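User: tokens in, sequence out, please.
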């Protein structure tokens, strides 16, 4: 099973979309193994978006990510990173396909409701960044036999 992280960004929190977003991952059969609401510190934003720190839009991105709380969600499942990224949709909300989170609810590139890990290494670093070890839970996921074929469990 693969683990990944989704951040429900301030625009989604402010628009009351937390439940809708969470519902889409659960409906797919992915397992939520950790979840919490938090406000991002300067250090956390700078660490998470280090690859954008020298870009002209970083100040606005930082301000946006600190405008309201976010919800960090750790998710597990077969090919979870790919599955989550398909559910989330492409970065540019106005061209994301209908049926994806961004396609149904976003118009912006920056204010695009969610962040999703893009690779196993990124996911591992983001789980460590946003969750303590005792905030990730292993438990029997009741729908698993109904979602995955026997060879994928």
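Assistant: Sequence out:
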């Amino acid at each position: 099973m693969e683990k990944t992280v989704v951040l429900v960004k301030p625009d989604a929190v402010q628009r009351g979309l937390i439940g809708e977003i969470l519902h889409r991952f659960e409906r797919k059969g992915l397992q939520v193994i950790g979840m919490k609401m938090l406000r991002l510190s300067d250090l956390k934003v700078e660490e998470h978006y280090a690859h954008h720190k020298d870009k002209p839009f970083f100040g606005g991105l930082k301000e946006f990510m600190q405008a309201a709380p976010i919800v960090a969600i750790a998710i597990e499942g077969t090919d979870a990173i790919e599955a989550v990224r398909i559910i989330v949709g492409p970065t540019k909300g106005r061209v994301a396909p209908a049926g994806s989170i961004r396609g149904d609810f976003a118009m912006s590139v920056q204010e695009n409701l969610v962040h999703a890990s893009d690779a196993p290494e990124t996911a591992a670093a983001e789980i460590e960044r946003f969750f303590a070890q005792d905030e990730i839970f292993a438990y029997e996921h009741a729908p698993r036999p109904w979602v995955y074929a026997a060879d994928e469990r």
